[in-house]
From TrEMBL:
Residues 132-155 are annotated as: Disordered. GO terms for cellular component: plasma membrane. Keywords: Cell membrane, Membrane, Transmembrane, Transmembrane helix. This is RND transporter. It is a multi-pass membrane protein. The lineage of its organism: Bacteria, Bacillati, Actinomycetota, Actinomycetes, Micrococcales. The keyword DNA damage does not apply. Gene3D superfamilies: Multidrug efflux transporter AcrB transmembrane domain (1.20.1640.10).
Length: 869
């Protein structure tokens, strides 16, 4: 590999313009691909197969309208007074304007919704009053029916007596000898009157029977009505006065429903909707679009990130001595990020890509791009000052430090790609994109850096360094001989650094995982203000609604359906941490109910987490056979649980990988244990610092933490992956010099000191640059990015300065020769990995050393011809 990189560096030095042109073409291709095929980045994270994801999929099938993407906008009066009629009309007009935006399906007017809720309550009250009046009527009906029947019985008795009297008269007339026909004719009129009276009596009885049947039906309806009124009251009680207009009338929540689901709503549509609200002006009313409505994609480079790059540039100038040389690593990093990030984002139209993914790629690309170029430039400058010929120096720097860069980059890439082992798609994609950007950074370092160094020529050295070049060997020879550190100092250093890191890591034992919500946004943003307004006027839980779906039999009657709905709503409402339960309705098939649950606290509150577990542990009420949950709060819990589950596995893989790599590189069993132990300490301390600042709120004013919350759920996994690769970089550049000195016969403790002195300056500079770049993201606008930037910056700080530059040399000094212990059988089977290209240096040492020394030490302007000699 070293020989290959030597030749590659030499070719790049001979044809610098061709190399530069090739990278310009790569940038153009990547930019064209992004502009042609780039899609929409999503501002949410999701893990397929979790209970929340499964329930969300069911919602999209069974309740397609309810499963659409939504976002709230909060309206509140500036002086805290109730909305005036004119303000209400203006708010409705603004919402109507938002309804007309392409991509918006509908808007929910809070005042119309509040009126509907009031109408429902009034209908319930009116129904109860009507039912009470009907009950009073039903109470008197039996007496009236009984009295009517008594009257009919009396009339029947009178008719029977009259009939008997008439029949007696007929018999008397027949007995007197009157012909029967004459008798019938004589009494026909009286008989007709009696018959008519009997018919009238029967009609009266029929009417009474009908009225009694109607009464019985009325009793049944009354009883059914009582049940329905009772069920309605039970459902109303479960809502606990739910409203979208505050009790004092000074705030209201409007809702925008998009045509597409949340993940599919484009950034343009969201911006158009948010723009409608931010451009609107209502006298005396604040309009606050919420976080879920905007879901803005974070800026890749903001002012804070630029400040970080400026600090990195200052460090480069101090170390490299000239502005033009210091600009080379920055230029390389920008080229690598441009190609890597743009090429990766070109796939965002076919792969669901989180908005954090390219930002992480940019973060890593800038940091490693600067550092990797710095390693090569530093080696080249050192060789130039020793009198090595220009092109040979460039090729040697590429074959030695470039070889180390390839190895270091490989460890970072492997650690990032290993994120795919977690089985979590968005995390694996972040690792893949980050790894790709690092690969590009390595390629830029070993091709573009030699080309740019060739164009720079001896201007890679300052004029003072060029003038001092002839005295370099003499100055090196006159340096004070190195001595090993004292044993007492080594003991104190080792114990002190381990103790400091262990103490800083203590908060990690109380770490809670979560996802940022509106409370994590900057206080001056409408996202935070909307969150605060909803919490103030409606309760913190209004920012974390939970959707519950309940499976039921499809053949339930209307009353049984209402009964089951009320029973399930009451069961949920009875839980301590539930503020409102709002029944939404049933699906078209009639086999599923939907509820909206408003908890007391927000999504990241520990009580809300407990509530979700409690809801999932319920034995469903009534005819409900299964109860499932969805929503931001449940999604946060599912994602955090899934990540917490895979974190030990990933940490084990990374630590095991570090042991294998270190054994291979340093041919020792002890050094890898020290390196891996130091990595665990630095990661633990970095996570502890993250918990203390972002979860506990320590130093919150400094780090823009105004509302402490659980740690970003995927941050620990990302930190392990990234910091592992960087830790191995620093271990390599610190320990390789120790190994080389020991292998050449230097006493073990003196070899530790020699290697440390040889590598400390470049490691310190590289670490400061890393901290500057990562630290710039601490003040990013996006709440996802800030803790990532801090975690990586503090992790690099701990690992480079406490672990690699203090603890590792101290422990290796105490161990002495034992630090390089390796069983003979293992030594025989391990391949010889020449990471620093030492054999290449030995083979070419002196071959061209001293050639054109006059050129390298003169301050005469260098022409293109002389640069390419």
């Amino acid at each position: 590999m070293a020989t290959l990189l030597y030749r590659l560096g030499l070719k790049a030095a001979k044809r610098p313009l061709a190399v530069i042109f090739s990278w310009l073409v790569m940038i153009a291709i990547a930019a064209a691909a992004f502009l042609s095929f780039g899609g929409t980045l999503v501002s949410t994270v999701d893990i397929p197969g979790t209970p929340t994801a499964q329930t969300t999929d069911r919602l999209q099938e069974e309740f397609p309208d309810a499963a659409r993407g939504t976002g709230n906008v909060v309206f509140q009066t500036e002086d805290g007074s109730a909305f005036s009629a004119q303000q209400r009309e203006a708010i409705t007009a603004v919402l109507d304007e938002a309804r007309d935006v392409d991509g918006v399906a509908d808007v929910i007017d809070p005042f119309a919704t509040d009126a509907e809720l009031a109408d429902q309550q009034q209908e319930l009250a009116d129904g109860r009053a009507e039912l009470e009046a009907a009950g009073e009527q039903l109470e008197s009906a039996p007496q009236q029916l009984d009295a009517a029947e008594e009257e009919l019985d009396a009339a029947e008795a009178e008719l029977q007596a009259a009939q008997e009297q008439l029949d007696a008269g007929k018999q008397q007339a027949i007995g007197a000898g009157m012909p029967e026909a004459a008798v019938e004719q004589q009494f026909a009129a009286q008989q007709a009157q009696l018959d008519a009276a009997v018919e009238e009596l029967q009609a009266g009885r029929d009417q009474v029977e009908q009225e009694r049947a109607a009464y019985e039906e009325g009793v049944t309806d009354y009883e059914d009505g009582q049940v329905l009124i009772e069920l309605g009251q039970r459902l109303l009680t479960a809502t606990n006065d739910y409203s979208v207009v505050s009790e004092d009338g000074s705030a209201a929540i409007g809702t925008v429903q998009f045509v597409d689901h949340d993940m599919d709503v484009s950034t343009d549509v969201r911006q158009d909707v948010v723009g409608t609200f931010t451009d609107a002006s209502i006298d005396g009313v604040e309009i606050l679009p919420s976080q879920e409505l905007s879901m803005a994609v974070p800026e890749v480079l903001g002012w804070a990130e630029v400040v970080g790059l400026v600090i990195a540039g200052i460090v480069l100038v101090i170390m490299l001595g000239t502005f033009i040389t210091a600009g080379l690593p920055l230029l390389n990093a920008l080229v690598g990020v441009g190609v890597g990030a743009l090429a990766a984002m070109a796939f965002s139209s076919v792969i669901e890509m989180s908005s954090v993914t390219p930002v992480l790629g940019v973060m890593l690309g800038l940091a490693v791009g600067i550092d990797y170029a710095l390693f090569i430039v530093h080696r080249h400058r050192t060789q130039l000052k020793s009198g090595m010929e220009l092109r040979h120096s460039i090729a040697m720097a590429n074959g030695t430090s470039g070889n180390a860069v390839v190895f270091a980059g490989s460890t970072v890439v492997i650690a990032l790609l290993a994120l795919n082992l977690t089985g979590i798609p968005f995390l694996g994609l972040m690792g893949t994109v980050g790894g790709f950007v690092v690969v590009v950074a390595v390629l830029v370092a070993i091709t573009l850096t030699p080309a740019m160094l060739s164009l720079l020529g001896v201007r890679a050295l300052s004029k003072r360094e060029r003038r001092a070049g002839q005295r370099h060997d003499q100055q090196v020879a006159e340096r004070k001989p190195l001595k090993p550190m004292s044993t007492a100092r080594a003991v104190l250093t080792a114990i002190g650094t381990i103790a400091v890191l262990a103490i800083i890591a203590i908060p990690v034992f109380s770490m809670r995982l979560g996802i940022p919500d509106g409370s994590s946004e900057a206080p001056e943003t409408t996202e935070y203000q909307a969150y605060a307004a909803q919490s103030e006027h409606f309760g913190a839980g209004r920012n974390a609604p939970i959707v519950a779906v309940a499976d039921i039999p499809a053949d339930l009657s209307e009353q049984d359906l209402l009964t089951t709905t009320a029973q399930q709503a009451e069961q949920i409402a009875a839980l301590d941490q539930v503020q409102h339960v709002v029944p939404v309705g049933e699906n078209e098939a009639g086999d599923m109910l939907m509820f909206q649950i408003i908890p007391v606290h927000d999504a990241n509150h520990e009580q809300t987490v407990n509530l979700v577990y409690e809801l999932r542990g319920l034995d469903p009420a009534g005819e409900v056979t299964n109860l499932a949950l969805a929503g931001h709060a449940t999604g946060v819990i599912d994602i955090s649980d899934a990540l917490a589950e895979v974190l030990p596995l990933y940490l084990g893989v990374v630590v095991g990988l570090s042991l294998l790599i270190m054994i291979l590189v340093f041919r020792s069993l002890v050094v890898p244990l020290i390196a891996s132990g130091g990595f665990v300490l630095s990661v633990g301390a970095a996570m502890g610092a993250v918990v203390a600042i972002y979860q506990w709120g320590w130093l919150g004013d400094i780090f823009m933490v105004h509302n402490p919350a659980p740690v970003l759920s995927f941050l620990p996994t990302i930190m392990i992956g990234v910091l592992f690769g960087l830790a191995m970089d620093y271990q390599l550049f610190i320990s390789s010099g120790m190994r080389e000195a020991f292998a050449h016969g230097t006493e073990a403790r003196l070899a530790v000191q020699k290697g440390f002195v040889q590598g400390r300056s470049v490691v310190a500079a590289a670490a400061i640059i890393m901290v500057s770049v990562f630290g710039g993201f601490i003040y990013a606008d996006d709440p996802y990015i800030r803790p990532i930037g801090f975690g990586l910056a503090i992790g690099v700080l701990f690992d480079a300065f406490l672990v690699r530059m203090l603890m590792v040399p101290a422990l290796m000094h105490l161990l002495g020769k034992s630090a390089w212990y390796l069983p003979k059988w293992l030594d025989r089977i391990l391949p010889n990995v020449d990471v620093e290209g030492a054999k290449l240096a030995e083979l070419t040492d002196g071959a061209q050393h001293g050639a054109h020394v006059e050129q390298t030490v003169t301050d005469t302007p260098v022409t293109t011809t002389s640069r390419n000699v």
